[in-house]
Amino acid sequence: LKCSSPHTLAQTPAVGGHPTAMPDRQHPNILVTGTPGVGKTTFCEAVAEATTRVRHLEVSKLVKEKKLYKEWDDEMACSIFDEDMLCDELESCMEEGGCVIDFHSSGFLPEHWFDLIVVLRAETAVLYDRLERRHYPEAKIKQNVEAEIFQMCLDEAREAFGESDVQIWEVQHDSQEQLEEAVQRVRQFVENFKPDERPQPCTCGAALATAGLRFHNGLVVPALVSRAHLSKPA
Q1: How far apart (Å, rounded) are the C-alpha atoms in residues 187 and 185?
Q2: What is the spatial distance between Cα 206 and Cα 190, in angstroms, rounded to a whole number?
Q3: Is 24 exposed, middle or buried (CB count within 10 Å of its CB: 0-12, 13-18, 19+)?
Q4: Cα–Cα distance measured from residue 208 to residue 11, given in angstroms and rounded to the nearest whole number
Q5: Contact, 131 vs 44, CB < 8 A?
Q6: Nearest 5°: CA angle at 22, between 224 and 169?
Q7: In a designed cystine with 140, which of 12, 82, 136, 159 is the match (CB 3.0 to 4.6 A)?
Q8: More confident residue, 175 or 9
Q9: pTM value surpassing 0.70
Q10: Is the pLDDT of residue 146 over 90?
Q11: Which residues contact 183 (CB under 8 A, 6 or more apart)?
Protein backbone atom coordinates (compact mmCIF):
# COMPACT_ATOMS: atom_id res chain seq x y z
CA LEU A 1 0.00 0.00 0.00
CA LYS A 2 1.08 3.58 -0.64
CA CYS A 3 0.03 6.65 1.31
CA SER A 4 -2.18 8.88 -0.79
CA SER A 5 -0.48 11.94 0.65
CA PRO A 6 3.04 12.82 -0.58
CA HIS A 7 4.03 13.96 2.90
CA THR A 8 5.46 11.96 5.74
CA LEU A 9 3.37 10.90 8.70
CA ALA A 10 3.39 13.04 11.81
CA GLN A 11 2.75 10.32 14.39
CA THR A 12 3.77 7.00 12.86
CA PRO A 13 5.78 4.85 15.32
CA ALA A 14 8.57 4.22 12.81
CA VAL A 15 11.61 4.82 14.98
CA GLY A 16 12.29 2.21 17.61
CA GLY A 17 8.56 1.90 18.23
CA HIS A 18 8.33 5.53 19.36
CA PRO A 19 5.99 8.13 17.81
CA THR A 20 7.79 10.15 15.16
CA ALA A 21 5.85 13.38 15.55
CA MET A 22 8.22 16.32 15.61
CA PRO A 23 7.82 19.94 16.67
CA ASP A 24 8.45 22.66 14.10
CA ARG A 25 12.21 23.03 13.88
CA GLN A 26 13.65 26.50 13.41
CA HIS A 27 16.66 25.32 11.41
CA PRO A 28 16.84 22.64 8.71
CA ASN A 29 18.19 19.12 9.01
CA ILE A 30 20.45 18.06 6.17
CA LEU A 31 21.62 14.58 5.22
CA VAL A 32 24.90 14.32 3.31
CA THR A 33 25.32 10.85 1.88
CA GLY A 34 27.55 9.12 -0.63
CA THR A 35 30.12 6.39 -1.12
CA PRO A 36 32.94 6.29 1.46
CA GLY A 37 35.69 8.57 0.19
CA VAL A 38 33.57 11.17 -1.62
CA GLY A 39 34.28 13.70 1.14
CA LYS A 40 31.14 13.70 3.30
CA THR A 41 32.86 14.61 6.56
CA THR A 42 34.98 17.34 4.96
CA PHE A 43 31.89 18.76 3.29
CA CYS A 44 29.79 18.75 6.47
CA GLU A 45 32.54 20.38 8.50
CA ALA A 46 32.81 23.12 5.88
CA VAL A 47 29.03 23.68 5.96
CA ALA A 48 29.05 23.90 9.77
CA GLU A 49 31.86 26.47 9.58
CA ALA A 50 30.00 28.49 6.94
CA THR A 51 26.87 29.02 9.08
CA THR A 52 26.14 28.95 12.79
CA ARG A 53 22.61 27.66 12.19
CA VAL A 54 23.64 24.03 11.80
CA ARG A 55 26.04 21.65 13.51
CA HIS A 56 27.77 18.59 12.12
CA LEU A 57 27.15 15.06 13.41
CA GLU A 58 29.42 12.37 11.98
CA VAL A 59 27.30 9.22 12.13
CA SER A 60 30.10 6.71 11.51
CA LYS A 61 31.97 8.12 14.49
CA LEU A 62 28.79 8.01 16.58
CA VAL A 63 28.27 4.33 15.68
CA LYS A 64 31.75 3.51 16.96
CA GLU A 65 31.61 5.65 20.11
CA LYS A 66 28.12 4.52 21.16
CA LYS A 67 28.63 0.94 19.92
CA LEU A 68 25.50 1.12 17.77
CA TYR A 69 26.24 -2.18 16.08
CA LYS A 70 25.83 -5.88 16.78
CA GLU A 71 28.12 -7.37 14.13
CA TRP A 72 31.62 -6.85 12.77
CA ASP A 73 32.80 -7.58 9.23
CA ASP A 74 36.35 -8.92 9.53
CA GLU A 75 36.94 -8.98 5.78
CA MET A 76 36.01 -5.32 5.29
CA ALA A 77 37.23 -4.27 8.76
CA CYS A 78 34.04 -2.39 9.61
CA SER A 79 31.03 -2.63 11.88
CA ILE A 80 27.54 -3.52 10.63
CA PHE A 81 25.43 -0.82 12.25
CA ASP A 82 22.07 -1.51 13.87
CA GLU A 83 19.39 0.65 12.22
CA ASP A 84 17.02 0.78 15.20
CA MET A 85 19.77 1.65 17.69
CA LEU A 86 21.09 4.37 15.40
CA CYS A 87 17.68 5.92 14.76
CA ASP A 88 16.97 6.01 18.49
CA GLU A 89 20.29 7.78 19.06
CA LEU A 90 19.65 10.36 16.32
CA GLU A 91 16.02 11.12 17.15
CA SER A 92 16.59 13.91 19.70
CA CYS A 93 19.02 15.69 17.38
CA MET A 94 16.56 15.49 14.52
CA GLU A 95 13.75 16.84 16.69
CA GLU A 96 15.83 19.85 17.67
CA GLY A 97 16.78 20.66 14.08
CA GLY A 98 19.85 22.39 12.71
CA CYS A 99 21.73 19.14 12.25
CA VAL A 100 23.94 18.15 9.31
CA ILE A 101 24.64 14.45 9.38
CA ASP A 102 26.83 12.42 7.06
CA PHE A 103 26.47 8.71 6.41
CA HIS A 104 26.88 6.30 3.51
CA SER A 105 23.41 4.78 3.98
CA SER A 106 20.09 6.63 3.81
CA GLY A 107 17.28 4.20 3.04
CA PHE A 108 16.44 3.42 6.67
CA LEU A 109 16.16 7.06 7.79
CA PRO A 110 12.67 8.61 8.19
CA GLU A 111 12.10 11.14 5.42
CA HIS A 112 10.39 13.68 7.69
CA TRP A 113 13.65 14.14 9.57
CA PHE A 114 15.22 16.04 6.68
CA ASP A 115 14.75 19.19 4.66
CA LEU A 116 17.59 18.57 2.20
CA ILE A 117 19.50 15.54 0.93
CA VAL A 118 22.95 16.08 -0.58
CA VAL A 119 24.44 13.12 -2.45
CA LEU A 120 28.16 13.66 -3.00
CA ARG A 121 29.81 12.10 -6.05
CA ALA A 122 33.44 11.66 -7.10
CA GLU A 123 35.29 10.48 -10.18
CA THR A 124 36.49 6.90 -9.73
CA ALA A 125 40.18 7.81 -10.05
CA VAL A 126 39.81 10.49 -7.38
CA LEU A 127 37.86 8.13 -5.14
CA TYR A 128 40.42 5.35 -5.53
CA ASP A 129 43.27 7.66 -4.51
CA ARG A 130 41.38 8.89 -1.46
CA LEU A 131 40.58 5.38 -0.25
CA GLU A 132 44.13 4.23 -0.90
CA ARG A 133 45.42 7.06 1.30
CA ARG A 134 43.15 5.72 4.04
CA HIS A 135 44.95 2.38 3.72
CA TYR A 136 41.75 0.53 2.91
CA PRO A 137 42.17 -3.13 1.90
CA GLU A 138 42.13 -3.60 -1.87
CA ALA A 139 38.84 -5.52 -1.71
CA LYS A 140 37.21 -2.67 0.21
CA ILE A 141 38.50 -0.08 -2.27
CA LYS A 142 37.17 -2.11 -5.19
CA GLN A 143 33.77 -2.52 -3.53
CA ASN A 144 33.41 1.21 -2.89
CA VAL A 145 34.60 2.22 -6.36
CA GLU A 146 32.08 -0.16 -7.92
CA ALA A 147 29.35 1.27 -5.68
CA GLU A 148 30.19 4.73 -6.98
CA ILE A 149 30.23 3.58 -10.60
CA PHE A 150 26.74 2.13 -10.20
CA GLN A 151 25.62 5.24 -8.20
CA MET A 152 24.23 3.04 -5.43
CA CYS A 153 24.06 5.82 -2.81
CA LEU A 154 22.30 8.15 -5.24
CA ASP A 155 19.76 5.49 -6.18
CA GLU A 156 19.17 4.64 -2.53
CA ALA A 157 18.49 8.30 -1.70
CA ARG A 158 16.15 8.67 -4.65
CA GLU A 159 14.26 5.54 -3.67
CA ALA A 160 13.99 6.61 -0.04
CA PHE A 161 13.15 10.29 -0.53
CA GLY A 162 12.13 10.64 -4.18
CA GLU A 163 8.38 10.60 -3.49
CA SER A 164 8.62 13.13 -0.66
CA ASP A 165 8.98 16.91 -0.82
CA VAL A 166 12.58 16.73 0.39
CA GLN A 167 15.01 18.17 -2.14
CA ILE A 168 17.79 15.87 -3.39
CA TRP A 169 20.94 17.52 -4.72
CA GLU A 170 23.59 15.55 -6.60
CA VAL A 171 26.91 17.30 -6.00
CA GLN A 172 30.28 16.54 -7.59
CA HIS A 173 33.23 16.75 -5.20
CA ASP A 174 36.54 16.21 -6.98
CA SER A 175 38.18 19.54 -6.22
CA GLN A 176 38.39 22.32 -3.64
CA GLU A 177 36.59 24.66 -6.03
CA GLN A 178 33.65 22.28 -6.31
CA LEU A 179 33.59 21.92 -2.54
CA GLU A 180 33.49 25.65 -1.91
CA GLU A 181 30.78 26.24 -4.51
CA ALA A 182 28.56 23.49 -3.07
CA VAL A 183 29.11 24.65 0.51
CA GLN A 184 27.94 28.14 -0.39
CA ARG A 185 24.87 26.70 -2.08
CA VAL A 186 23.98 24.74 1.07
CA ARG A 187 24.71 27.77 3.24
CA GLN A 188 22.20 29.79 1.23
CA PHE A 189 19.64 27.02 1.66
CA VAL A 190 20.17 27.10 5.43
CA GLU A 191 20.03 30.89 5.65
CA ASN A 192 16.85 31.05 3.56
CA PHE A 193 15.09 28.23 5.43
CA LYS A 194 11.65 29.21 6.76
CA PRO A 195 9.95 26.75 9.14
CA ASP A 196 6.45 27.88 8.15
CA GLU A 197 7.12 26.90 4.53
CA ARG A 198 7.95 23.28 5.36
CA PRO A 199 5.41 20.74 3.97
CA GLN A 200 2.77 19.82 6.52
CA PRO A 201 2.72 16.09 7.33
CA CYS A 202 -0.40 14.04 6.83
CA THR A 203 -2.25 13.05 9.99
CA CYS A 204 -3.18 9.44 9.35
CA GLY A 205 -0.33 8.08 11.50
CA ALA A 206 -2.41 7.71 14.65
CA ALA A 207 -4.97 5.60 12.84
CA LEU A 208 -2.26 3.34 11.44
CA ALA A 209 -0.65 2.99 14.86
CA THR A 210 -3.98 1.97 16.35
CA ALA A 211 -4.29 -0.68 13.65
CA GLY A 212 -0.82 -2.04 14.41
CA LEU A 213 0.68 -0.62 11.21
CA ARG A 214 3.35 1.91 10.33
CA PHE A 215 5.03 3.48 7.33
CA HIS A 216 8.40 2.39 5.93
CA ASN A 217 9.68 4.39 2.94
CA GLY A 218 6.12 5.22 1.91
CA LEU A 219 4.80 1.68 2.36
CA VAL A 220 2.28 0.55 4.99
CA VAL A 221 3.77 -2.41 6.87
CA PRO A 222 3.08 -4.21 10.17
CA ALA A 223 4.48 -2.22 13.08
CA LEU A 224 6.38 -5.22 14.44
CA VAL A 225 8.36 -5.88 11.27
CA SER A 226 12.01 -5.06 11.94
CA ARG A 227 14.17 -2.88 9.72
CA ALA A 228 16.39 -5.86 9.02
CA HIS A 229 13.55 -7.51 7.10
CA LEU A 230 12.79 -4.26 5.26
CA SER A 231 16.32 -3.31 4.29
CA LYS A 232 17.16 -2.95 0.64
CA PRO A 233 19.48 -5.42 -1.07
CA ALA A 234 23.03 -4.21 -1.57
Answers
A1: 5
A2: 31
A3: exposed
A4: 9
A5: no
A6: 95
A7: 136
A8: 175
A9: yes
A10: yes
A11: 43, 46, 47, 50
